[in-house]
Amino acid sequence: MLVNATNMLLKARDGHYAVGQFNINNLEWTKSILLTAQEMNSPVILGVSEGAGKYMTGFKTVAAMVKAMDESLGITVPVALHLDHGTYEGAKACVAAGFTSIMFDGSHYGIDENVAKTTELVALAHDHGLSIEAEVGSIGGEEDGVIGMGEVADPAECAKIASLGIDFLAAGIGNIHGKYPANWKGLDFDALDKIHNATDNIPLVLHGGTGIPDEMIKKAISLGVSKINVNTECQLSFADATRKYIEAGKDLEGKGFDPRKLLAPGAEAIKATVREKIELFGSANKA
Ligand code: 13P
Fold it and tell me: 104-112: which pairs have CB atoms within 8 A and are 24 or more residues apart?
């Protein structure tokens, strides 16, 4: 059932668990995530980056596919279709395309421009019944082979953005996208606590969910994190299972080259990763 993410995240905040955002790249990804959320009776958020949207030929294609698949599979758990790290233009395009939730990432602007653009997009999203996430303090990650350490957001800036009517807030606390480097210092729980106290109990979002130790995930949830984004980990498990299939020569046996067979181990691996995360985040049976 396609819905915006507001209620599922307020419920998660009050129930002290987190809802997973799993990024999608194609039909197999979407199907694996929807079926697993349904099997576990868990709410779920499908994340779409601007790059993945382009890859799938545009946000309209994505919205049409997700809506139709949700219906065809008879999905009854709450599902939000959410733009991940949207630009100002991308956020507007997703509202028009039929997404149910958007993220506007204005973290690279100065605070005043972030405030102005977020304010405008809050009104647009809410007019159309969508939920909206905003960001303060950019999330690091790998770019051109260099891993940037994540920024730690300023609690006063978080308070400013949180007061604009957004539904949930992404704040950097030393988290980064992709694999964590060996010298990573871990999440900054002191900063998370300060941000949580400054933002009137708004549901907080933890990006870069891949590779964060389970204990840190649990502690983050106890300090107000209600949404956790996972992308790379599904890509790694898909690639690993697909490599094993090819290395075992299975594509050379009978009709093993049929994409429905070739992509099946990867699709099953995504399901296993999503299942594991839903268990860890505590959202099973919370639909
Ligand atoms: P990972 O790729 O590190 O799991 O991060 C996902 C994410 O935060 C998407 O916004």
Answer: 104/132, 104/133, 104/134, 104/135, 105/134, 105/135, 105/138, 105/170, 106/134, 106/135, 107/135, 107/136, 107/137, 107/138, 107/139, 107/151, 107/170, 107/172, 108/138, 111/136, 111/157, 111/160
Give the pLDDT score at 146: 66
| Residue 281: predicted pLDDT | 98
- Supply 16's token pair: 């002290």
Task: Write out the CATH class of domain 6-281.
Answer: alpha beta
Is any atom of ligand 1 closer than 6 Å to the C-beta of 84? yes
Which pLDDT value is given to residue 179? 92
What pLDDT is recorded for position 138? Answer: 80
Atom of ligand 1 nearest to the CA of 233: 4
Distance 17 CA to ligand 1 centre (A): 18
Q: Which atom of ligand 1 is nearest to the CA of 207?
A: 8
Ligand 1 pocket mutation, candidates 231, 236, 237, 274, criterion most atoms within 8 A of CB: 231
Residue 150 has what pLDDT?
80
Residues 6+ apart with CB under 8 A from 143: none
Determine the pLDDT at residue 143: 60
Question: What is the pLDDT, as a whole number, of residue 144?
Answer: 61
Q: How far apart are CA 198 and CA 84, in angstroms?
A: 24
Residues of the chain with pLDDT under 50: none
Q: Which among 133, 92, 129, 138 is positioned nearest to 111, based on CA atoms?
A: 138
Query: pTM, whole model, 2 decimals?
Result: 0.97
Using a 10 angstrom Cβ sphere, with 0-12 exposed, 13-18 middle and 19 or more buried, the burial of residue 200 is: exposed
**Atom 9 of ligand 1, nearest CA residue:** 229
Domain ranges (residues) in the chain: 6-281
